Amino acid sequence: MTQKYFSEYGGRYVPETLIPALDELSQTYQTIKEDNSFKEEYKALLADYSGRPTPLYYAEKLTEYYQGPEIYLKREDLNHTGAHKINNTLGQILLAKKMGKERIIAETGAGQHGVATATVAARFDLDCEIYMGAEDIERQALNVYKMEMLGAGVIPVNTGSKTLKDATNQAIRDWVSNVESTHYIIGSVVGPYPYPEMVRDFQKIIGEETKKQIINKKGKLPDYILACVGGGSNAIGIFHPFVDDQDVNLIGIEAAGEGIDTGRHAATLSEGRVGVLHGSRSYLLQDQDGQVIPAHSISAGLDYPGVGPEHSHLKAINRVRYDYIDDQEAIQAFRLLSEREGIIPALESSHALAYLEKLAPKLSQDQTIVVNLSGRGDKDINNFKKIREAEADEQN
User: Fold this and answer.
1) CA triplet 383, 388, 391: central angle to 5 degrees?
2) Distance between the two ends of the chain, CA-based, in angstroms?
3) 47-72, pLDDT tens digit by residue?
4) Which residues carry this modification: N6-(pyridoxal phosphate)lysine (predicted)?
5) Half-sphere exposure of 221 (CA within 13 A, CB side)
6) I need a surface site. Which of 130, 263, 268, 317 has the fewest CB within 10 A?
7) 257: helix, coil or strand?
């Protein structure tokens, strides 16, 4: 079944020149996604190249700290390249090869999608260029080095807020000009159809594994699942296989940045309105005239003014609750997991971890929470180092 729309959300709002490329992508994907040879090749890459299945880890020290429900972490940070992004790029690179494309482009914010794209382009010997906002290049220097080591060109974007939205604009312009030779690997469940459905399908392995693993460990489904939401790919990936399990509470955590009241945040579903951005209809941050306004988060991967259309649908039908966590709360969670469990989380994932502070005290010891640890935090060490230096200066 294809899903061009999720109720009123989704669709295709793109230049006419992109329609043939989207049709080709859609037809190819719908044809081969049930093809056994494609499924076997994809499954083998996930297992032998990326390292799946990723563990479902019982966070004993974190559980002791909150003195409440049992807390489990889905360890997507242990994937090859350090985040869930590789699940999607492996699937899309196989599609690109199938369509005979010679060149790959992508956009990236935190750099994890850029690294995953550069990795699969190297593995399959395709030219690769990554668009990245100038501010994100500074925040995520380590991932820029990785992309360049893998042979990709990193193209700085100096327009607008110099972050993910502006990088996406530039990638779309490139695709319009080079659509015959180029496949655009979108990194989240955003963009025109078929991207939201296709990226979700490549990411739902997270939830499928989680369901099997928690039943093996606990003999029942979890009571709560938490995941951070920027564009929303890791959240859709873990939520999707549980959507029909009504007893499982699904909570998506957006970035409140410097605080909802300051206006400097990225809480699109919580504070945005319905509009069109980057080819699909969904919630987005906009002013009274309908102009998109800049998003802000300490986490480059959540610093995006839109969200995947399926998330807007899940909000509309009240299947997923969306809430938010600010920069300072995320930093505290970053510290807590690092010091308690010896796991350094990505700042994106730290938003989901921080929500434990609000949720766990309300639950009993016989309940279970799964947090999707979507990426590892070595890319954020420079940011964290600056934070610690600023705190030290204030104390002195």
Assistant:
1) 125
2) 61
3) 999 999 999 999 999 999 999 999 99
4) 85
5) 18
6) 317
7) strand
Number of neighbouring beta carbons within 10 Å of residue 124: 14
Strands 103-108 and 182-184: parallel
Q: At what angle do helices 112-123 and 141-149 cross, to 10 degrees?
A: 10
Task: Give the C-alpha separation, 52 to 156, whole Å.
Answer: 33
Tokens 């859709």 identify what position? 236
Q: Which residues are catalytic?
A: 85, 107, 374
Residue 267 contacts residue 351 (beta carbons within 8 Å): no
Cβ 255 vs Cβ 267: under 8 Å: yes
Residue with tokens 């593995």: 123
Angle at 73 between CA 70 and CA 76, to 5 degrees: 170
Token code pair at residue 50: 């990326």
For residue 107, which of 389, 304, 312, 380 has the smallest C-alpha distance? Answer: 304
Calpha distance 131→149 (Å, rounded): 16
Q: pLDDT digits over 333-349, tens only?
A: 999 999 999 999 999 99
